[in-house]
Every structure is written in C-alpha cells, then in structure tokens.
From TrEMBL:
Coiled-coil residues: none
Aminoacyl-transfer RNA synthetases class-II family profile domain span: 131-455
Tree of life domain: Eukaryota
EC numbers for this chain: 6.1.1.22
Example of a GO biological process term: mitochondrial asparaginyl-tRNA aminoacylation
UniProt entry tagged with the keyword Protein biosynthesis: yes
Protein name, entry field: asparagine--tRNA ligase
GO (cellular component) term, any one: mitochondrion
CDD domains in the record: AsxRS_core, EcAsnRS_like_N
C-alpha cells in the first residue's frame, strides 16, 4: 500500500526498489518536460508523488484509477511533502475519470454538497480518515472486551417490540410475512439481557433504527450502537468504571497511532489544537458524576445567577434539554459527566428503582440509570440497572401497556423478557453507546452525517 511506502522505516528500506502502486489520481501538475501526479490508495490520507513523462500523464486527471510501476527514489528538488517519490516506468490507466463531469474538486467543497455525493466523498482525505478512525475504534473495542472477558454477540435486527417505548420504530412491510407486525430494532438490549442470563458478560455492535423526525446534527435514522450487558452487578459503579476505562483505552490508542495524527491533520490547524486538548483532557482528568437532582439544582442556580439563559427552564421531572446537557458538559464540567438517577417517569419500563429512593419534597421516584454527557455532542451513552424482579417488572410492563401474553395475545408480546425473571433471575445492567456520536466526539466532527459513510435521516436515504 502507499501507506507502507510513505511511512518510515519501510520508506527507507525500499529505496531504489521497483514497486507497483494502484490508486486514484488526486491531482496532476504538468510542467514543461515532466509531470507530477499525486496518487492515493486510501491507506493513508497522504498521496504518493509519481514523476511521469508528459506522455505518461496524458490520460490522467483527478479521479482516474491507475497502476504505476517505477523506482522508489529520493525526491529530487525537494518539492512536495515526502522525501521519496515514484519515478514511473509503466503507467496503466485502469479507469478514466472525465474531468468535465467528475464532481469532486480540488477546492473546498461544503459538507452539504458532499452529502449529495455519498458514493464519492470517501475519496476526500477527511472522509477517508473517518473510515480509518471508525475502524480503529472498533478494533480497540474488540480487544478491550476480549481483555475484560466479555463475549461479542449478535442481536436480531428484526424484532417484535419497541425496546425504548418511544414509538419511533420502522415497521416492516410486508407485515403478513411474520403474521404479526415486526419492526427494525431500536436497541438490542432486551435480547442482550437474555444472553447475559447465560453468559454474564456480553456485548454487541449492531445497527439500530429510529424513526425520529428530528433532523438534528446528532440523530440518524440508522446508526451503530455498542451495547454491553453484565450480570451479577448491584450498582452502577462497575458500568461507569468500565465505560471510563473503555473510552480512555480508545483515546490512548488513537492519540498514539497514525490514524490520530491523520485525524489532527485533516481537522485543520485551529481545530487540531482543540482536538488534542480534548483527547488529553479525557485521559488526564477523572470523569465527573452527579445525580439528575443535583444537575437540576445546578442548572437552576446557573439560570438564577444569569450565568446562562436557557430557552426552556430546567425543572425536576422534565427531560434535560440539549442546551442543559451542553451547559453541564461544556461549562460546568468541561469534560464527560455521568448524570445518574433520572425520574422514573422519564425512562423506559425496564429500569430498576434507584438504591435509595427517598424523594425529597416535590420530587418523585428515580431509577438507577445514567446518561454520559460529553461536550459538543451531548448524550453519548445511556445505561441502567434492569428490573430483575418478576412482580415488579410485570407491574411496570402493564403500566406501560406492553403485551405480556396473558390475555391470549401471545404473539408479539414480551412474555419471554418477563420470563427471564422467573427462572434464575439475577441483578444485571448495561448500557448503549452511539458509535457514530463517538466518532463525532473523537474526530471533532460537528455533524453526525459525516461520521458514517452512508447516513440516513428524515427525508434522506439516497445512496
Ligand atoms: O439512550 P438510548 O436510547 O438507550 C438505549 O437504547 C438502551 N436500550 C441502551 C442500553 O442500555 N443497552 O441509546 C443509546 C445511545 C445514545 O446515548 C446515543 O449515543 C445513541 O445511542 N443514539 C443515537 N445515535 C444516533 N442517532 C440516533 N437517532 C440515536 N439515538 C440514540
Ligand atoms: Mg438515552
């Protein structure tokens, strides 16, 4: 690959060797007697410089796929970023790219415009880099979970239920195929809980689908969720500790590897400084943790003292707004913060009540859950302990109008989920992390539509 040629020590070892590279032309400079072509094969954001005769460069233009054989030489004239260049002997055009119609340009093109070219934009260095970064994160996660004795599982995509109960499910057509309505999963959690009742430490990285109509910079209709479930845990502490360790391990891997360097160099100078600070901050500081109730007081105080002005006031019992989350993570904690023990009324049916539910006057019950909020992105992770007691879960399921199969309507019900509490139930809990949001956070990407190659959001699924 070009990366193995460009990045020393291989670069030096192979000096004066004859090598063959295949890739796409990024640019061609034609001088009087000689031409220079920058060729990229996506293995690194940096192109290789090939030195060609005028004739050899004739059919080359941005986007052309080529195979070039030549000598890997010390670069004469010292032009370009690399100390070596490829002195072409044989140039084979594999696929032409008509310069009059090729939509990618050497000049700056806006993210909005590039989103109309999802099939091509991965050829741009910043987008190429995001593919590498995402892949690096997944490798690190895989190794991390192996090390911590979690096994990777696959949860189904087609499901009978709406795990989060938010009514944002995509229904599958034709309905008749499975006899009862089926949906694309919003979360693999319920199935992962069943697996954690056999193997106590499981994880999955699966597509999740949400028919959310909000076309924000952090919502996709299809995204990848990392989910973890652990049995035999009594508090949120082990989950919170695991998450901090997991994200720090990812950041350490990025910041010490070439993908990290290339992330910084595609971010642009100003942003690179901020991004490096972000990585450092993540590693150096212990992460903060507060309860929802404390967060509401803190937000109330900040508004009262005119430290900040919110569009919607933060009141106990109401969901934290994006502006509240941003203020907490960015201004108050300037880094990740776990907000725990939200009001029960705001959360899905499966959460276990908080350990000490002693509501202060004016407050209601809370559940043993957390959201991890981070600057710029907001909510990155949501997790909880699960209701593991049969009677209590049944009550909650009924209260939420979830079919439990006791009225003859067995099909499509969550009876199986309830039954897990009947035979060998254990205390357990887990969490879900939005992988695309993590990519945004670690790469300093502002819009989640850039964090994944083929984003889908309300009204848009073009490619
Ligand atoms: O907070 P959520 O909805 O939690 C669950 O689904 C749990 N069942 C997970 C679990 O405990 N196993 O989603 C988890 C995370 C969010 O914090 C967010 O990062 C991401 O998934 N997420 C989205 N990412 C992109 N686009 C969307 N529409 C998302 N919705 C959630
Ligand atoms: Mg959530």
């Amino acid at each position: 690959t070009i990366s193995s040629l460009l990045h020393s020590p291989l670069s030096d070892e192979r000096a004066n060797e004859t090598v063959t590279v295949a890739g796409w032309v990024r640019s061609v400079r034609r001088m009087k007697n000689v031409s220079f072509a920058h060729v990229s094969d996506g293995s690194t954001i940096h192109p290789l410089q090939a030195v060609l005769t005028k004739e050899q460069s004739e059919n080359l233009s941005m986007g052309t796929s080529v195979k070039i054989t030549g000598e890997w030489k010390e670069s004469v004239g010292g032009k370009g970023q690399q100390s070596k260049e490829l002195l072409a002997e044989k140039v084979e055009v594999l696929g032409k790219a008509d310069p009059l119609t090729y939509p990618l340009q050497k000049k700056y093109q806006t993210p909005e415009f590039l989103r109309t070219l999802l099939h091509l934009r991965q050829r741009i260095p910043a987008n190429t880099n995001l593919l590498h970064l995402r892949s690096n994160i997944i490798s690190t996660l895989t190794a991390f979970f192996v090390e911590h004795s979690f096994i990777q599982c696959h949860t189904p995509i087609i499901t009978s239920s709406d795990c989060e109960g938010a009514g944002e499910v995509f229904a599958i057509v034709p309905e008749k195929f499975f006899n009862t309505p089926k949906y694309l999963t919003v979360s693999g959690q319920l199935h992962l809980e069943a697996l954690a009742a056999a193997v106590p430490r499981v994880w999955t990285l699966s597509p999740s689908f949400r028919a959310e109509k909000s076309g924000t910079t952090r919502h996709l209709s299809e995204f990848y969720m990392l989910e973890v479930e652990a049995a035999f845990i009594d508090t949120l502490d082990p989950l919170v500790a695991l998450i901090e360790d997991m994200v720090k391990t990812i950041v350490r891997s990025i910041s010490t590897s070439r993908v990290g360097k290339e992330t910084l160099s595609t971010a642009g100078e100003d942003k690179a400084v901020q991004l490096e600070e972000r990585w450092k901050g993540l590693l150096e500081r212990p992460w903060s943790r507060i309860t929802y109730t404390e967060a509401i007081s803190r937000l109330g105080l900040a508004a009262e003292q005119k430290e900040v002005q919110f569009d919607i006031p933060a009141v106990w019992g109401a969901a934290l707004q994006a502006e509240h989350e941003r203020f907490l993570a960015q201004t108050v904690f300037n880094g990740p913060v776990f907000v725990t023990d939200y009001p029960k009324s705001l959360k899905p049916f499966y959460m276990l009540p908080s350990v000490s539910t002693v509501p202060t006057p004016g407050e209601g019950e809370t559940v043993a859950c957390f959201d991890l909020l981070v600057p710029a992105v907001g909510e990155l992770i949501g997790g909880s302990l699960r209701e593991y007691r049969y009677d209590e879960l049944l009550t909650e399921m009924r209260r939420h109008g979830i079919a439990v199969g006791d009225g003859g309507e067995d099909e499509g019900s969550l009876r199986w989920y309830l039954e897990l509490r009947k035979w060998g139930s254990t205390r357990h809990g887990g969490f879900g992390l939005g992988l695309d949001r993590l990519v945004c956070y670690l790469a300093g990407v502002e819009n989640i539509r850039e964090a994944t190659a083929f984003p889908r959001w309300v009204g848009r699924c073009d490619c």
